[in-house]
Design brief:
Length: 327
């Protein structure tokens, strides 16, 4: 199974060519260089980093760019500093000598272990995307060698056995179960349809966004039901536009300036997190509380899998906010 790449921000490197070549050489999982906003982890040039205060590090990022300030105690992503370190006070940080292949291998493996949840979510997002058209049951139990390794409530909560490897999910058998069979063992990784597809759709070209969302006016419905760490400026920009007035795909593309494929990925993420709709009756009203859960479980399913039959005057054309786990 070929998963989408993990993303590494390269911070403070005058010439990122060499660290990028090390990342490209990694294949299982694959890595790619990314912006600081998009990254799952950080490599910081130790020669550009200086300790400003307790756990506060300032990183020179080029003559024409502002310095990057990292608060190591609150940073939610793995960070490794490359040798040599310019500031001797930073001896306790994670370090790697990029000239030493053994150290690079160890540092990447350690980072990948820290990102185990992200890898499992990407693997689950891939499996959901491949099965989307056939997910007709309310709940699925994923089994591997007769052992329960995952629980998927469509399209809400998901639990994944943390002892599982990303490749194992491709081998798991999906067994349809009734809606009430959705209990998730406490030792499973708790996540959701929205979070798995948010991560997955942002890294690969997919065809998960319904076609009507590329032609009909789009409306803001509610804030995304995902961890705030997943929100990026581009998601806020789209939601800000839609909170002001309905916009079509083409109008959003013109006002925000995103290439078609990137906007498609952003709208796919917002669709599965319940934030946008092309049904004006489900749009957020002025003065109303938009940050709400879906009214019923059937509303969730009817949005993804509308009942067959003649179309009504106003189509049921939204992906309501899933009843998902939130920390």
């Amino acid at each position: 199974m070929h998963l989408p790449s993990l993303r590494m921000a390269l911070v403070g490197f005058p010439d990122p060519g060499f660290p990028e070549s090390l990342l490209r050489a990694r294949s299982h999982p694959a890595w790619e260089a990314a912006s600081l906003d998009d990254a799952d982890a950080l490599w910081v040039a130790g020669g550009s980093a200086h300790l400003e205060a307790d756990s506060l590090v300032r990183v020179w990022n080029g003559e024409d760019k502002p310095a990057v300030v990292l608060h190591l105690h609150t940073l939610e992503r793995p960070v490794t500093f490359t040798l040599p370190l310019a500031d001797p006070r930073m001896q306790d940080v994670g370090q790697v000598d990029l000239q030493n292949p053994g150290q690079v291998e160890y540092a990447l493996r350690r980072t990948e272990q820290s990102l185990r949840a992200v890898l499992l979510q990407l693997a689950m997002g891939q499996q959901i995307a491949e099965r989307m058209q056939s997910l007709s049951a309310h709940t699925y139990h994923l089994t591997l060698k007769e052992k329960l390794v995952g629980v998927v409530s469509v399209p809400g909560r998901i639990g994944i056995d943390l002892g599982l490897g990303p490749d194992d999910l491709a081998e798991a058998r999906w067994v349809a179960r009734p809606a009430f069979a959705n209990d998730i063992p406490k030792w499973f990784l708790p996540t959701s349809f929205a979070e798995c597809l948010w991560l997955y759709a942002g890294r690969v070209e997919t065809d998960l966004l319904p076609n009507r969302y590329r032609s009909a006016p789009l409306y803001f419905r509610c804030v995304p039901r995902v961890s705030q760490r997943l929100m990026q400026n581009v998601h806020y920009a789209v939601l800000s536009e839609l909170a002001t007035a309905p916009r079509t795909f083409a109008e959003l593309q013109e006002s925000i300036g995103l290439p078609r494929q990137e906007l498609d990925a952003v709208l796919t993420a917002l669709y599965f997190s319940g934030s946008i709709t092309c049904n004006p009756e489900r749009a957020a009203r002025r003065g109303a509380v938009a940050n709400r859960d879906a009214v019923t479980a059937s509303e969730l399913r009817n949005s993804m899998f509308p009942p067959a039959g003649p179309a009504s005057g106003v189509p049921d054309a939204t992906m309501p906010a899933p009843l998902e786990w939130r920390p």
